[in-house]
Structure formats: structure tokens, C-alpha cells
Amino acid sequence: MASQTQTRDRAINPYDVSADALYTEDTWREPFAALRRDMPISWRPDSPFGGYWSAVTHEHIQQIELMPEVFSSSWKLGNITIAESINEAEFPNFIAQDPPIHTAQRKVIAPAFNPGQMIKLEQQVRDRARMLFDALPVGETFDWVENLAIPQTLGMLCSLFGIPFDEWRDLKRWSDYGSGVSADNLNDAYRAEWMKQMGEMLARFDRELEVHRALPPSDNLLSRMVHSEAMGHLPPLERLANIALLIVAGNDTTRNSIAGLVEALHLYPQEMERLRADPTLSANAAQEIIRWQSPVTHMRRTATRDVEVGGQLIREGEKIVMWYISGNRDERVFPDAERFDVTRENARRHIGFGHGIHRCVGARLAEVQIATVIDELVERRLRVAPVGTPSRLASPFLHGFNTMPVRLEQD
Prior knowledge:
The chain has 411 residues and is of the alpha+beta class.
């Protein structure tokens, strides 16, 4: 923590925006609006995660993202979340690395999402969405997260990994532990269970990696990893961290956007009429729900030297948290930012998947999955009506839902 001398002239953040309650109670909008207005770069001296800087405007978040040599993602300096590493364990996945390691490992993963692969993946996405929608009950209450959002996204992950679809619940459990950033998890019991779950995940994927190691290289994501120079001989901890990253990135962000879509269309029902009038808007609507929901609440960087941002002096070794959820509500970039607008002209300027060298490598696949869900709702002339109150995720890292009871109505 910085000394009194270092903090004397700092803009002191009166809100601990890392508090779970802001997100479980859905009261985060006002604190971030005040910070954007009064102190776009601010220092919070105390929290369950220690002192931290906050960057809350679209401009400053992009500025920090474009300076990776100054604002490090390295797990050696604390990793990519407000928590120190992941449950105080080293977690060296490829987005928690700086160049040149990050660059080399990203090049292994990126071809799995190139245009040629996306043609194949898009058909799989559409086939799975049709299958899931066919099974949804019309006029009865069910959980949108459990019955659609999770199996849609985890089904895609199973395809990418080449593992049976009936293992999707294992992937969900491991994803939940891999992304479990919360003050409630800062205890020995949770850390012990986290280690157990991560060990089970590594054992399962090590078996799969060995199968692919014995086969010729293919387009399978695990095959790409095991047959590459950059990722083919990772030590156990790095294998574990990278597999957890791929599961979390491929699951939580997309599923939480698909869940957020229900809330957005409920609050702004006229947007469904616009989608029905022009079904080609689904691609832009997918971008807009990523902006509006902001499924990744934040990412963290660590200063490698003293640097000034937004008139504030950030000291070497201090953490700065980029609050994507706030940058995506920045009225200077997104007029009437609270509104969900499927025709928003600059929806693609969202920073829901990051910016710069760390922008999500699977962003295009996520967009396709969300757009496909929208297409199915439009083509089937379905409306999704929330039933009761959803259970929101207790986390300052991912912005989403545990459960969302809904009823489908067909026009």
C-alpha cells in the first residue's frame, strides 16, 4: 500500500467498487457515473483486495490498454484481476503474460478462430441453438441460464476441445472456480476447494492432451496447443492456467451476455419490434448487448514504473483496475448510454472484450453465439418474460447471473 506521502495529493475514491453488493443488488451505475464525472482516475486506499486505482472512462481504459509495456498483465506482478493472482496462487495463463510470451502463445490459439474456422463453428452454433430452442417449453417457467445460456456456450467449448457434450457440467463447475473473484472467497476453505477443482480439471485435460499428442496435428484447439513450440511443453501450472482461461473466456462472458439479453429486452421491449422489422440487426444487437451487459466487469494491470494518467501519478508496483462496465456506460462515447439500442451506430466501440493486444481472441465466436440466440427469438416470434427476480453473480470480476427464471411467449 502506498505511503501517506504518496497518497496525499491523490483523488481518493469514496466508493469501493470491488464490493460484491454493488453487483448482486444491481446498484453499480450511480457510483461509476459519479467517478466518471468527478475523478476518472482515482485511488481507493482500502478494500478486501488492498489499495487500487480505478480507471472508469472509455478514453482512459483504452489509453492504459495501449501501453502494455507500462501497465503489465503479468501474473508475476499480480495477474489480471483486482485480487492478487487467483486465490493467492500463481496462475500463468497467456493473457496474464506480457510480450513476447503473450504474443507467441496467443498465436497458437488465434487460428482456431480465423475466418475459415469460423464458417465451421458458426454452423455448429446455429445447429446447437436450434436444438436447444426446440426443447424450451413455451408458456412454462424455466431457468434461461441453465437451459439455454450455459449449454449453448459450453456446447461450443466441448466442440472446440473435442470432448463429449455430456461433460458440460464439469466445464461449468471448473469455470466457476477459475473465475471466482470475490471477497467471500478469500479464505482457506475456498482455496482448498479451488485447488481440488483445478486439479481435477488438469487431470481431465491432460488425458485429452496426451491423446492429441499421439495424433497428427489438427484444427482442434487442444491439438494446436500440444503440437506448438510455444505451448506444447508447458509445466503443469501453466497448462492448468491456460485451460482454465479458455474455459472461463469461452463460457462466462458469452453466457452472461445471453442472460443479460433477457433483461435488456424486458426493459426495452420496443427493441424486439425493431429486430423483427429488420432481422439483419441481430449482429449489431449482439455488439450492443455486450456493451450494455459488460460481462467482464474489469481487468487489472500493474504499473512497471511511475506514470501519470488522467492527472494522477501512479507509482511503480501499484495496481490499476480498468472498469469495463463503466467505460461502456461513458456518455461521451455512447449517448443515452443506459439505453439498450439495437441500432446504436457505434455499438462496436464497446470495450467489453478489452482493447489492444489483449482483446479477446474468441470475440468473434462470442458475437456469433449471441446473434444466433437473437435470430432464433426473432424467427420463432418468441418473447422472453422474466419471472421474479434473477440471482446475480457475487463478483466484481464477471457481471452475470446464477439463475434467471423466465417464461417464453409466442406471438
